Predict the structure.
Amino acid sequence: MIEPAAQTKKFQKELNAGTSSLILLSVMSRSEEPLYGYQIAKMLEESGPGVPMMKQGTLYPVLRSLEDNGLLESMVEPSVSGPPRRYYKITEEGRTTLVEWVELWKQTKKFVDAILKG
Amino acid sequence: MYKTIEAYLDALKGELKDADTALLQDALSDAREHLVTALEAARAANPAVSTEEALPSIMEEYGSPEETASAYKEIERRMSPVLKQAVKPRSALGRFFGVYADPRAWGGLLYMIIAFVTGVFYFTWAVMGVSLSVSLLIFIFGFPIALLFLLSVRGLALLEGRLVEALLGIRMPRRPLFSHQGMAWMERLKALVTDKATWMMLVYMLAKFVLGIAYFVSIVIVLSFSLAFIAIPFLQPAIQTSLPGTAFIYYNGTSHYFPTWSYPLCVLGGVLLWTIFMHIARGVSQLHGRLAKWMLVSE
């Protein structure tokens, strides 16, 4: 038997696994400039009200997987102080994929809401 | 809580000690970049704050090493490295020579070499199995032999699928097909014989023999030509000094020599020939992968 709190945490994690790609791709599509991880985390913090939905450390592996799938591209640039930074930028493929994902998200949201209302 | 960034990174390293080293390197560089940047930002906002005071909240927001490690492992589990897309360089020249950096080209080449061995084996096995099964069917014990042979065809098809997926990056079945568990063996034999998939697999095993030989022969021929062209500038002078009067090419009673000015062209030609062949190998092996998928995977 898992504790109720742990159940909730596990469910949150599973939800995040699906939505984080969509959220990150959407944030990246709004920026013309290449962004590095910390900036993206800050943007999420500013646009998302109140409760942090996911830990910042979990953004990075998602960014990498989006890049591996060709939806983002990245380049490493040295920074004035500290380690070099990896800048991410959305690709054309990423933009077209995002349109499909948003559509899918709307449908999913409508479906879940309809079920929850009963 | 960790007092320094290094301590956090050590803890993260500990959490990922079983993971792939490439994954570990990614995770560490991401964490270092984030924590250092966040610390700088915190200091810029409030110069009076010390590292020890700023770090706990930064690390809290970043997540514990355990959480971070599990996020990386989760993503890695969902992505198969062989299915990852190759990086596409921009220029035409970059695309042309980019084939050397494409794992699908090397995988395809390796697959085509191995296809020679597997093709010969499949062919021998199929011919032996079919003739043995058919001729022994007049006896009662011919039936179990036929059943075993047809089951072995399924097993080999699965094995071939694994090879195709590993080297060509084409998704193939990871589990054997419907296994007819709990059926009488005569029923199983009937099910196997009437299943179109079995015969497609058998045909594939025969076809692979021809294709495997063709692949292998073309690789050997093109590789020898390419290497020979690249070696001309070194071999021709070496032959002339060690064995004076011996030509590099001796044809119809006349000796032919490559003029010195053509040396760079020979090397360039050899390199181009092999590079073009790498492209062909990538294309042909991908086509072969599709053929394998079509013949070995039943709907």
Q: What stands out?
A: The first helix of chain A runs from residue 4 to 30. DSSP finds four helices and three strands in chain A. Chain A has one domain: 4-117. Chain A touches chain B at residues 17, 36-38, 41, 52, 55-58, 60-62, 64-65, 68-70, 79, 81-86 (CB under 8 Å).
